[in-house]
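Sequence of Neur_chan_LBD domain-containing protein (Angiostrongylus costaricensis).
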Amino acid sequence: LVNNYTKPIRIREKQILDLIWKPDPYFVNSKYSYFHAVSFPNFRMRIYPDGLVKYTVRVTSVCNCFMLFCLYPHDRQTCDLRISSIAYPSAFVHFVWHTDPISFQSDIALPELHVQHVWTDKCNVEGKLIRSSCLRLVFELERDGARFVVEKYIPSTLAMMFAWVAPYVPYNYEDVRIITPITVLLTLVQMEKGDKEIRTSYITSMDVWFAAMKGFTVISLLESLVVLALIKRSRAMEKNMQRAKTELERENFKLEKHKLTRLYHRLDSMCRFISPIVFVLFFVYYMLFVAQGNERGCVAK
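Predicted 3D structure, token representation.
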């Protein structure tokens, strides 16, 4: 389209634009796309004297992005936008990136994901009969985990720690020792499943965290059951002491009662000391190996 004009020719009429040949790019991984036409078709074409044609058009597209949530909510995702020719082979239409192809009018703000890096590349389109030119725009995204710390991690940790109250409860409050861990366990189940946004068929980092919190709670419940069984056995020994006919039998029952009392006191003391240490060790392991593990580890064969 070489011409003798000294300034670029501006094409503003849709009828003239339809008469000019244009390449046929399309978004390969698009689910839904449309051109903007309010209040006038949003396009701009300029034809320069040397024949160079610049064509700009506003398009909105919703594209597919394959994501893995093994490290959710500490995951990092890579999404791309693929542009190719639908009818022409690369010998007829060849797409290349401009020197500076990406520009943003303002900073991109997403609800949870932050754009860490954007870069361009070439690609291959699978499933086509012809080999056409293809361009790829890649977005590297990282999830912001601050909301999950406030809504998931801190409440679940506090709920689990509430189950640690059982070893401090006086021994005559037997119902409290059982009801407290059960209530915490039901709370954790509801907290995990109540507003779950990501549902997968594999285990995510968040699933590992809640499984550990429920595991600590179940251990506290089992410890309470063992202590209550020992207390019941100790009380039975005390009744046997009162019904003993000889001094020897009374001393044997007294010795057995003393052993049982010392055993459940020691068991409570161990739980008070070991539970926080085990939780701290799990927290370090979770942050170093689970939350920062392999992106595809949960689906790898």
